[in-house]
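#help-structures
NK: newbie question, is this the right format to request a structure? protein is RRM domain-containing protein
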Amino acid sequence: METHDEERSPPSEGGRADDEGRDQAPMRRAVQGHDHAPGGQNWAPNGDDPGRGSMAWLERMEERGGRTQSRWARQDQAIGSKRMRALSSQEGDRERMSAKAEREDNEAEQELLVDLSNEAWAQIEQGFSQTNMQVCFSMNETSVPVSSSCSWQLVDFTPEIITHCSNNGVDFEGEELLLETKDQQYLKGNPVKQDRVLWQVLKRGYIPISIDDTAVRIWIQPAYTGIQGSNLSLNELEYYNGNYVSPAQLRSAINEMGGSDCLVVSHSTYMNEKQRWTPVACMRYAATSLAYSFRLYFPSPNEANKVYRNYLLSSRQRRRRRDKPADTINLRLVQNTEWDTQREAIVRLTKTERDARNSKRINVYGVTSEVKMIFLKEAFERAGFQPQHIRFNRGRSRSAVATFNTTDQAKAAVERLGENGPEQVTFDVTAPF
């Protein structure tokens, strides 16, 4: 008779129990619910494998987990090393690009500061010495920390600026710089001599000032001539070009237009930020996504007039060669100045002159691109008016300016054709077939 409470041994490694259901039921119970088999011995259901939950099983699982973690650690280390190599490579690329840009900037600056012939210097100094100008200093930063507890503004660097300039051959009247505060701080001074030494200092565009561990770049440039009411000589023109032009190419282009040399002067705003750039940076990097933009300062008003006159003459039938980026140079007048066609000179009108001139002018707005000069002239004639001169203002919003002989004629035209007048200016743009 079979005894039901007899212990059954697990099947041997080489065979199976005859009654599979009866043999595996106790195995499942032992694996699921007991640390040890009946009798107090560890039960290995598969021969060499320890029973689930036994001490040997736990040790083996811990060993396997350790091997898995070690494998993961090696993988993480490999991935981390790969990332570090990639970051190191990127950092190396950035350093190489930065070093290359710095080297190219230095080369361009040397090209910009190239020495000229004695005849060229004589011509520059002759005009520059008779120019009414001021030297203007500024900083991009509002203030610069000079210690852990103190920051200096531009005016605080005045003694260092005067000393640096004096050591480089540039002295100022009264050994002083005057503070002027507008949108930011400016220091202005009147140079004792306007010679090649000052010209070269201005041509670099900046002076380095060091105080202990603090290094700051101070901008130095001629004071802006486009300020209304200023009495500074009109030596400046606005420069605009969609292509990069090297310092040598710019000098060659200026020579072709009758100039001897010019300073590259930074605007006060670039990339929509209040900042100035070095002359080399102005030339090498586009001020916007579309163009390189800065000012050109010439040694004398006569030279600026000559360059602008020749530019206007050449621009009427201008050659644009594909391998000549200087062919796309555009020159414009600075603010609050005009080109006097009779005197062929850049002029700054006084308030009285400006009011008298404007009293004879009327503006015509809404002039579309298909409207020709003859259409506008005929429109005035139909209304009974004879403007002395009509000029188009080309830009985003195209308009025209009509100049009359007298103030009374201009007033009559506004009263009749103006916004509140009984008539409106209309254009017949229909062409006969």
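mod (FA): yep, format's fine, and the tokens are attached above. Residues 1-45, 428-433 have pLDDT under 50 and may be disordered.
NK: thank you!
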